[in-house]
Write a structure and sequence with these properties.
Helix content is 53%, strand content 9%. The chain has 334 residues and is α/β, with parallel strands linked by helices. Helix 3 runs antiparallel to helix 4 (133-147).
Length: 334
Amino acid sequence: MRSMASFSTLKPYSLPFAPIKPTYSSQVGLCNIVKRRSDYQNLVLHNGTQQFLQFGGVKQHRIQRDIVVRSEIVASTAGFSDDSSHALADSQFISRIRGVCFYLATATVAIPLFIAMAIIHPFVLLFDRYRRRAQHFIASLWARFTIWPFYKFEIEGLENLPPNTTPSVYVSNHQSFLDIYTLLTLGRCFKFISKTSIFLYPIIGWAMFLKGVIPLRRMDHRSQLDCLKRCIDLVRKGASVFFFPEGTRSKDGKLGAFKKGAFSVAVKTGVPIVPMTLLGTGKLMPTGKEGIINSGSVKIIIHKPIEGNDAEALCNEARSIIAESLLTHGYGVH
């Protein structure tokens, strides 16, 4: 390596700018020395003469080559990441658009059907006060017309459904807001249980009231007892009821613990329990993301009815049946 003296002999016109005269004083600190050394390296990098290449050309060439290779790798990785993020953003955007269209469709269909429910309601109270089959039929039309453009559903085990005239207690796992829409397509008349706050929603809540949906305040023990008493009374008068024994929608898609309320109703009234497994609704509209609808399909599996005199044993048996079905299809269970 050449000394600094050889560097000082270079002609000024060989540099792209005027050379800096080194002026060192006795009081120059370490920071100034480092600064001048950095200035010198900058001259080497910006000058293309043979002398500078000989002084540090090999090292700088390796550095620049290494930078180029790393830059290409980073650029290619960044491009792949950008493509993936764009695809994900596009998918989420489409799901949001589908969600908006879904709610527009359900509101549009609900308005004329609600008017029909309101018109026939006095006759329903007069001739079919407890089962309300006409109101349930209108609700099933509303569900079918709403979900038809957005997802397909399949029903397995229709032969396991009791006759429509036989009161029963139906139970199922609960994954999504879409569960209600899907279950209304089964062709069986039953009463759902719903939070009291839902009844305040215009059109939808009012239609639920006309249909005879059973209200419940979840954290109110007295309301829970009143709900069970009303279910027992309805079943004894020939109506069927539908329970989600988990009590609420699953947040992670896995089957939760079952409560015994539905099974107590079945034991006290002597009617069968009809377990069902819902597959796919949680992927279409996950809990907490009710503003979107992803693409996909839904399946309902209707299991054979079970009977017994022990509410806890019925609860465990029904949960085992549904859990086994979920595990078979790749879903989780707590």
